[in-house]
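[09:14] KT: can someone run the structure on this one? pasting the chain below
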Amino acid sequence: MNGPRLINFKRFSEASGELVPFYVNKSFPKKFRLIRFFFLYGKKKYFRADHAHKKCTQIIIALNGQIKIYTFFKKKKKIFNINQKSKKALFIPTKCWLKIKFSKDQDSLITLCNYKYDKSEYILSFDEFKKKYY
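[09:31] RB: done, structure tokens below
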């Protein structure tokens, strides 16, 4: 299984603004079927996420600000920086622990998910995650 990785996307600019299109079957990794999405707003002195998923894969796209995402996957820790101008989204596979740090209050992102919300599929203890998956 591939680990967390950046995904390139296109951005079209003109005098009136910008357009960033996504095509479900082209822009996302194979077999990623969009089921739900949510917006996340942060405060700079707190981490968000701080969990892993057993079944859900995600694509994280910065909407506003500079966002640092710490990932732990198969004995590797990686840090990704994304922002609204980078033309990059971050793919998060299953069984990948992540922590999200916003650089300013009210930075925001959108997360696309291929699995419904189900609290039982979350891994909320980093110790449990390390024993089973890291």
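[09:33] KT: thanks! The chain has one domain: 5-133.
[09:34] RB: yep, looked fine to me
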